[in-house]
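Journal club side-thread
Mid-discussion, someone asked how the predicted structure for our own chain would compare to the paper's figures. Pasting it here so we can look after the session.
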Amino acid sequence: MKLITTLCFSFFLGAASFSQEIDQRLLSKYTSTELNEMMESSPKEYALLDYALDNAIYFSKGIGEKTNQLQTISMPTEGANFIDLGLEIQGQNQYFQISGDDRLLVIKSKVVLNYEMQKK
């Protein structure tokens, strides 16, 4: 009986510590169950999302008339990430014209983010 109690306690303690590894910012888009499953079955995908929270967005200087053809987006608040903007990381870079600004907001692609992660 003592062994069963110890095993159950260890299991719950392990599960609690495992769920604490989840970046809380991802919970605005994914459930903790989805994230735990992703961490188990696709740890590279989870690592990419986690890395992208802090590294997927940058600003670039607009280039001529082609920027007028881009989707316009409001200037993000300081520290905003791709999830806060309602966007997803895709297979190619995404470019958005910032309303009232001559710069572009760029969301890096999965390929670029994976490359950056490998360099670290």
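Post-session note: The radius of gyration is 19 Å.
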